[in-house]
Each structure stands twice: as structure tokens, then as C-alpha cells.
Amino acid sequence: MVGAHGPSDRRRGGPDWRRGLSVGLLDRFRSRRAHDLAGMTGLPPTGIRVGTDDGFRAVVDERGTVALAGRDHVVEWWIGGDDRWYAPATEAAVRQVRPGDAPVVETRMRVHGADVVATTWAGQADGSQGPAVVVELTNETAVPVAVAVAVRAAPGGRIHRLAVDGRRLVADDEVAAVVDRAPGRHALVDAAGDLWDEVVGGRATVEPPAPVHCRSGLAAGALVVPLPHRAALRVAVPGGDLAGDPAALFPPVERVLAGWASRLDRAATVDVPDGDGSRSLLADLLLADPEPAGVLELARWGLPSEALGRLDGLGGRSLALGLVVAAADDDPDDLAALAELFAAADEATAAGDARARARAAVRGVDDDPADPDGRPAGRLRALARTVVRPSADGLDLLPVAPDAWRGRPVEVHGLATPSGRLGFAVRWHGERPALLWELQRHPVPEEGPDRDAVLRIPGLDPSFATTEASGEVLLAAAADPRPPDR
């Protein structure tokens, strides 16, 4: 097909805030709220985001293709086996997993009985060469393969000039891809050619071709690199003018995983059977577009410094605090998170006001809207409300415990609530659940409401209630979820 440039084209074809708060000093932040967030945040793209702390962002789709924010090109990889060429976009035997909590993606493609594995992450180059997405391709097959690192226009994007520069492909004066060794062959096409056909048909050349120019913006190209059995190839998709060797400049994936683990160790955690992992959701949230809901969730989950850092992405701290206050409205959980944010910003009086308002507000167990869009902030909010919700006089732990959780452990650590930071665990002794809990209470004025929060666990034992800040107890046997025999 003319101008398609790859098998992926053949398969898939060529964005009312509620009222703000009015509690003490919160009024002054409400007065700075914006009328509209349009243009300040974007809808999250499909795929898994990777990125670095300086704002560099990219998306890895379900087939391993890399797209950088703000760029007109995408980078993908094809594998030449000893029998034929394979492209993740069209192969059935492609699997993708996230091996841990960090934004690291592993894409596996079956090639003649074994796998070629693409491990993808983002990192900062040593020195001053900036960030990049790193794709490390490992050949687990029994024979050598060829890897074609292909650059083509993104949907809606254009590449008018494409050139080979040693180990680099340069698209419209932007470095699109860099490989860690000299390519064995090269291919460049304009709108009249088809890159896939050029590579698969053996027409890629040993000598680098002259740059191609394409008025319609459909230039495409590939660097073809031999990859021996059990060897690895590194490809960088840079955010800047990368000139060095990706294998030497970027940290290994193990260091990236360790860095994210250290960062997430400071956060609250929730582990429930068959549920979303809170740590991976927090990693996703740290890379998501700034939004008030995301700021609140970072504060709720024990990352208030990161929450403060997101305010700049919402138009500056003063304006953004107004947006976040408006988003919290009268929700007690969100007000508790807002208090953590104000405390981190050294706004002690506003933090106290938010805590007082959180204790005074009550949300019913059934009054809990479902997350409408599946973004990380909404999923974290839903996860938190699965394990604890405010009641009229305290907190309900596990307000509803699904039958599938019977006999399985639950753990919560450091989650912000209107009554303080909460941790608890459920362990099972036969048919009876054991509860261990600790509530780090906020200071409350003598005359204030909810001085001694009542903790209950209605989803497991409706008869249990305590005002103790910590303890452990063996609860009554959970009701049998099965209907009686007739």
C-alpha cells in the first residue's frame, strides 16, 4: 500500500467545577480559582506512560511502539527471523507486562519458537544530553535476528525530511532514534514508497542513503541492526540532541526500578485481593497530566511534596490551590487530603480549617460515585474508599467486604483520613478475621467534634467498635456467604 510504511498502518489505518469551600482561611484560596482548566491538562493517551522528573513524557502502546509528547514521529521495532519478518503491530503472539511498580514495560514477541523481549523505560543520560526513552531488545531465540528500528509519522503528525546520521535517524532536525552500534543496513522512503516492503524485500542498503524529502510529510526510515543469540541492543528515543552511545549513557533498568521503589516507599499503601496495586497507580499518577484530583490523591497517599510540585503545572501555586480547594468541595476524604497539602505548604491555619471541615462533613457509605474515566487519580480514590470511609462519628474500615476476600489478607498503611493517618491489617484464623490497627490522630480542639473517632469494620463484624488509637482484636466469625442447604 503506497505510503503506509508499516504493517501497523494496514491493521489500524493511517477534554463544571463545583463550588469551593468557605472555611476560615480557605476562602482566600477559593477566590483565586480559575474558571476553566481547558488547555491546561490533556486527556491521557492510551498505553503506559514513562518519563522523568524534568517533565519528559512518552507513551508505550500495547505493541511496544514509543511516542514522545509533542513530537510528530513514533518509533517501533521489527524483527527479522531466520524464516520471515515479524512486526509487533500485526503478530498475535505479543504479550506485554509491567514487571514491577515502576513505569517499566516489557513487551514480548514470539519469533520462530522463542521470544524477543523489548524492555522500555525512561531515564536521564549521564552528563548534559538529556532524557530519553530507552528500549532494550534482548534476543532469547536460538539464532541471530535482525532488528529494524523504524521511524514513521505519528497519527496526525508529519515528517518532511528524514536523514541517516551515523547511528541516528533525524526527523525534521530532531533526533528520532539512536542505536548503540553501527547499523548493518539502512532504508529511507517518501510517500511513494513503503518502508515495510523496503525492509522485508531486502532493499535496505549497506551505505547510508541520501536524506529524503516529502512534501506530504510521510517520510519514514529504518536502521537495521544484527542481534546475535542472547545478546541485547539498546535504542534511545531522545527528547534532545542525543549524540552518544545509549548503552553507555543511560542507567540500567535495575537502577530505574530501584529509584522508583525508593520513591514509592514513602507513600501510603493499600493491598487488597484482586485489586489495583496502589504503588503502580501512584507511579502512573506521578507521570500523569497535572489536575486538581491528582494533587489531592498525592497528598492523600502520603506524597505531599510531590503534590505541591504539581501545582506549578496548574498555573502556579496560588491559582492552583484555588482549583484544588474547589475540587475538594465538601467531600470529607478530599478535605483530609487538602489538609495534608496545606500542611506541606506551611499553611497551618488553612490545614486546621480543612481538618475541621473534614470532621464535620459526613459521606454515606452508598454515596460514592464510580470513577468515570479510569485515570490514575480516580482509580486511587476508588481504591482508598474501598478500604475506609468516614462515618458520622469516625471511620468505617472495610465498609463492604466482597465475598471473594473471605480468608484473604488486607493491608493498609499511612492513608490520610479525616481523623488522621490510618493503617490496619486483616489476617484470618480459620473462619475468624483478626484486625490490627493504628490511627495517628490529628490534634483536635477540646470542643471540636470527633475528638475520639469511633472505628468500625462493618464489612466483617458489624458489632465491633472502638475509640482506641491502636490495638488488635479477633473479630467474630464472618457470616457464611453461601446460601443454606435446602
How many distinct folded domains? 2
Give the overall shape, derived from the CA principal axes. elongated
Q: In the CATH hierarchy, what is the architecture of the largest domain at level 2?
A: Distorted Sandwich
Question: Major sheet: order of its strands?
Answer: 6-7-8-9-17-13-12-11-15
Helix content: 10-25%
Output the structural class: alpha+beta
Can you tell me about this structure?
By secondary structure, this protein is of the alpha+beta class. It has 2 domains: 44-258, Beta-galactosidase, Chain A, domain 5 (Distorted Sandwich); 266-474, no CATH class. Helices cover 22% and strands 31% of the residues. It contains 12 helices and 26 strands. It has helices spanning 7-12, 26-30, 195-200, 246-249, 253-264, 278-287, 292-300, 304-310, 317-328, 332-344, 348-360, 376-387; strands at residues 48-51, 57-60, 66-68, 73-80, 85-86, 94-97, 105-111, 114-124, 131-139, 145-153, 161-165, 168-171, 174-179, 185-189, 212-213, 220-227, 232-238, 269-271, 388-390, 394-397, 410-417, 420-429, 432-441, 454-457, 461-466, 470-474. The strands form 4 sheets. It has a 9-stranded antiparallel sheet. A hairpin with a 2-residue loop joins β12 and β13 (174-179). α10 (332-344) packs antiparallel against α11. The longest helix is centred in the last third of the chain and has 13 residues, at 332-344. It is elongated, with a radius of gyration of 27 Å.
